[in-house]
Amino acid sequence: NAGVTQTPKFRVLKTGQSMTLLCAQDMNHEYMYWYRQDPGMGLRLIHYSVGEGTTAKGEVPDGYNVSRLKKQNFLLGLESAAPSQTSVYFCASSYSRGQPTRNQPQHFGDGTRLSIL
Amino acid sequence: AQKVTQAQTEISVVEKEDVTLDCVYETRDTTYYLFWYKQPPSGELVFLIRRNSFDEQNEISGRYSWNFQKSTSSFNFTITASQVVDSAVYFCALSLSGGSYIPTFGRGTSLIVHP
Predict the structure, then answer these.
(1) Tens digit of pLDDT for each residue in A9-44?
(2) Which residue in B43, B50, B95 is closest to A111 by CB distance?
(3) Contact B45 A58 (CB under 8 A)
(4) Contacts of residue A100, Cβ cutoff 8 Å, sequence gap at least 6
(5) Integer Cα distance of B23 and B6 in angstroms
(6) Shortest Cα distance, chain A CAs vs residue B115, angstroms
(7) Of A82, A55, A57, A79, whose CA–CA distance to A68 is shortest?
(8) What are the residues whose beta carbons fall under 8 Å from the beta carbon of A45, sequence distance 6 or more?
(9) Distance (Å) from the C-alpha of residue B76 to the closest C-alpha of chain A?
């Protein structure tokens, strides 16, 4: 039971570098999310997707892009990394077609700890 | 717009004490869902419970219990006889039945249980 898998688990970047975080889920979930977690700020939604080929902005989307070309994968890109993007990033997924409501619990990955120097 | 407030930033207790984590929510919708998640020191987020707005029955699961009161817009979480393993950050979340279904999280309450 893999659930939600995030890669990489740790990464150190220099300011201005780009990178992509990968999230994969094997639960056939329609909804996928990217959050960042900073001390005292809780979880803040960056972008989300309600289905393959669709994406939408969350609370803090600036500096990030996402893609959902395949249902099971949700990629988060940092175009030009900045020190303010140092954070722990969590991917989550929820809701399978056929469930009685879309208000399903989220399943989270283990997180990616990203440091921007 | 919906909002979730967890006013307690950090709670410190000694093992075997009972502790209640508060969650107050705001929404104009009549149909919604509330969630609690646990984030232990290892970092992963784990779902604990979901409750819909039409079910005000309290729930008990072992040492955990949840008190949902629509009259005060609260969904509080009580741990009875706390243990060191309960040390974690606990998040409360609210999602509406309609629209984007995207949950709104509180900022979390850090619970420290001392031996």
Answers:
(1) 999 999 999 999 999 999 999 999 999 999 888 899
(2) B43
(3) no
(4) none
(5) 5
(6) 25
(7) A55
(8) A33, A34, A35, A58, A59, A60, B102
(9) 18
